[in-house]
């Protein structure tokens, strides 16, 4: 089985994430959306809300599971027997950052990182931009899937 994880904080899930996940499921038998837990990070949405956003967005997709993890991503991959890490790239800065992480992960394990470029028209969307729009009362509905369109 080709099992991959798509790790992130998903605070919140954006249309950019949605795009990568939707396209990623065509490459793998199972795709685990892995919500990383970082005690030092302050999130806008609770872990329960972020999990619900993702589960609702992909409720009709049997190849997708949602899990949470702490610690190193490669350790989580070993624990659940995932051979691939899926990552999205929006711009050259993402590439440089993600390349360094992929090389480190490869040094620590046999896990391969697979990169997908975000679709045209979604490369500007990031969770931090969405959070800023929400904090300032802007219309964020065109940046997130329906499952995230909540009052905060």
TrEMBL record:
Report the enzyme's class at the first EC level.
transferase
Task: Classify the source by domain of life.
Answer: Bacteria
Keyword annotations:
ATP-binding, Coenzyme A biosynthesis, Cytoplasm, Magnesium, Nucleotide-binding, Nucleotidyltransferase, Transferase
GO MF annotation, one:
pantetheine-phosphate adenylyltransferase activity
Q: Which Gene3D superfamilies match?
A: HUPs (3.40.50.620)
State which Enzyme Commission number(s) the record gives: 2.7.7.3
Where does this one sit in the cell? Cytoplasm
User: Where does it primarily localize?
Assistant: cytoplasm
Binding residues for substrate, per the UniProt record? Answer: 9, 41, 73, 87
Pathway assignment reads: Cofactor biosynthesis; coenzyme A biosynthesis; CoA from (R)-pantothenate: step 4/5
Endpoints of the signal sequence: none
Q: Where is the Cytidyltransferase-like domain?
A: 5-132
Reaction equation(s) it catalyzes: (R)-4'-phosphopantetheine + ATP + H(+) = 3'-dephospho-CoA + diphosphate
- Known partners and oligomeric status: Homohexamer.
Q: What is the similarity comment for this entry? A: Belongs to the bacterial CoaD family.
Function as written in the Swiss-Prot or TrEMBL entry: Reversibly transfers an adenylyl group from ATP to 4'-phosphopantetheine, yielding dephospho-CoA (dPCoA) and pyrophosphate.
Designated name of the protein: Phosphopantetheine adenylyltransferase
* UniProt organism field: Sediminicola arcticus
